[in-house]
Specification:
This protein is of the alpha+beta class and about 475 residues long. The chain has three domains: about 200 residues, Metalloproteases ("zincins"), catalytic domain (Zincin-like), CATH 3.30.2010; about 130 residues, Mog1/PsbP, alpha/beta/alpha sandwich (Protein Transport Mog1p, Chain A, 3-Layer(aba) Sandwich); about 55 residues. It is about 35% helix and about 20% strand. It contains 16 helices and 19 strands. The strands form five sheets. A seven-stranded antiparallel sheet has the order 10-11-12-16-15-14-13, with helices on both faces. A four-stranded antiparallel sheet has the order 7-8-9-17. Strands 2-4-3 form a three-stranded mixed sheet, sandwiched between helices. β3 and β4 form a beta hairpin. α4 crosses α6, α6 packs parallel to α9 and α7 runs antiparallel to α16.
């Protein structure tokens, strides 16, 4: 997730004010946020599925009210979700795309999001992003001068794992979007009941992550009522399908468009290998404290003890340059603080170090310059506990180093693959036989196959296989 761009976190709900936006304002907001999403969160690198989503989305959108230029994207998010921006942009995450088993389901999901745009729901919803369960007290004064943005750790939204916070719709808006989505999909020639199948797959996948409160998926950003699927089926029963034939006309054709899709975290934004954080794009590595909780956030790598929220160490991009001292001389520091800065070298790289105390916290700053970028490594602990953690903060800072070729080879990625079942084998047995990194629960949700039901011979099954990062797709 770490792309080390300032302001990388995008909160979709942030532009939503009380009152209604005009259509022109919606289009302007949608275009601006669309550009920011592509720059910060990024789009999927899987061309076949992206082209399929666009083709299906445009077909469904033809049956929505005119006057909106709909644009369809597969966003680089592992969490299953879909959302729409005002004025036309529609997004489906690669995590949700991997769960689908028919073009009808895709049409239903995209139709639902088109329904939100057509119903202009964004203009009437309010922000609902919940705080991440990390309550960190950060002294404000010196942080604002030499580590701007660090204090935002106390207010990161719950969807930070996906890099984008999405506000919730009302139940009435959800039902309205479901109904419109069913209508648009049916008119475009798709099974109008298939949205219910997609919702069921999402419910199964969502149940696998009940212990992840900070994880925002489709079912948490799109409130679900117990009778939602029944409502969809009831609406679908009265809708006739249009005459158009699907683009991918059977499950085999669907799976061929999904094979090679990334599943899980994208290592391009950095990857944890044990307690080491390896970033292939920026070509550095750093070792974090053993046994601590590690987080790869949009513009920060953070590590903290599981039982403390007032002690942590972070790594973030502080600026551009080849010498940290050049950056620090331009910062708004008083002479006393400036006098405490020490020059250092870390892994043969120019570095600087500073210790300060403020508002009851001891703060250990280290800056390292590498490949034209200056990275800030910051350790924070209450003054009373500082002596216990200063050596840990030093070890973390001193571990920063250029990424070596053998370490780069340790970075792995998961891609969706299609395998063939053997008669009578279980999903657990298939996962073991194929070496699937996804467990039987995910395989069940992704293939619409009951977890305890034996497989027939010759059925195509989606699994997630591990391979070296950057392998050909």
């Amino acid at each position: 997730m770490l792309n080390l761009r300032h302001g990388a976190l995008l909160t979709i709900s942030g532009f939503l004010l009380s009152g209604c936006l005009s259509p022109a304002e919606e289009q302007e907001i949608g275009a601006n946020e669309e550009a920011r999403l592509e720059e910060t969160v990024g789009l999927s690198d899987h061309a076949r599925s992206a082209a399929w989503v666009t083709a299906v989305g445009q077909r469904v959108a033809q049956h929505a009210p005119p006057g909106v230029a709909y644009r369809f994207h597969v966003i680089d998010m592992e969490v299953p979700n879909a959302f729409a921006l005002p004025g036309g942009p529609v997004y489906i995450s690669r995590g949700l795309l991997a769960l689908l088993n028919s073009e009808d389901e895709l049409a239903g999901v995209l139709g639902h999001e088109i329904g939100h745009i057509a119903g202009r729901h964004a203009a009437r919803r309010k922000a609902a992003a919940a705080p991440l369960a990390i309550l960190i007290g950060v002294p404000a004064g010196i942080i604002s001068n030499i580590a701007p943005g660090l204090g935002r750790l106390a207010a990161l939204p719950a969807a930070i794992a996906g890099g984008v916070a999405i506000s919730a719709y009302s139940r009435q808006q959800e039902h309205a979007a479901d109904g419109l989505g069913v209508d648009y999909a049916a008119a475009a020639g798709y099974d109008p009941a298939a949205l219910a199948d997609a919702l069921q797959a999402l419910e199964l996948e969502h149940a696998l992550h009940t212990d992840a409160p900070s994880r925002v998926s489709f079912l948490s950003s799109h409130p679900s009522a117990p009778d939602r699927r029944q409502r969809v089926l009831g609406r679908a029963a009265s809708r006739a399908r249009g005459p158009a034939a699907p683009i991918a006309n059977d499950r085999s054709a669907v799976l061929s468009r999904l094979a090679g899709l990334m599943v899980g975290e994208n290592p391009k934004n950095g990857s944890f290998v044990g307690d080491r954080f390896l970033h292939p794009g920026l070509a550095f590595s750093i070792r974090l404290p053993a046994g601590w909780e590690h987080l790869n956030l949009p513009d920060t790598v953070a590590s903290l003890p599981s039982d403390r929220r007032d002690i942590f160490v972070t790594l973030r991009l502080a600026g551009e340059g080849d010498d940290p001292m050049d950056l620090l001389t331009k910062s708004d520091l008083d002479e006393t603080t400036r006098a405490g800065i020490e020059r250092r070298q870390i892994s043969g790289l120019p570095a600087a170090h500073l210790k300060v105390e403020a508002d009851g916290s001891a703060i250990d700053f280290t800056w390292v310059s590498y490949a034209g970028r200056i990275y800030a490594i910051t350790g924070v602990a209450p003054v009373a506990d500082a002596s216990r953690y200063v050596a840990e903060f030093t070890r973390v800072a001193n571990s920063f180093a250029p990424l070596r070729t053998p370490d780069r080879a340790k970075i792995r990625e998961l891609r969706l693959a299609v395998t063939t079942s053997r008669g009578g084998e279980s999903l657990e047995g298939l996962a073991r036989r194929t070496g699937s990194a996804s467990g039987a629960g995910w395989i069940s949700a992704a293939n619409a196959w009951p977890l305890e039901q034996p497989l027939p011979s010759g059925r195509a099954i989606k699994v997630a296989l591990e391979g070296p990062y950057g392998r050909r797709r």
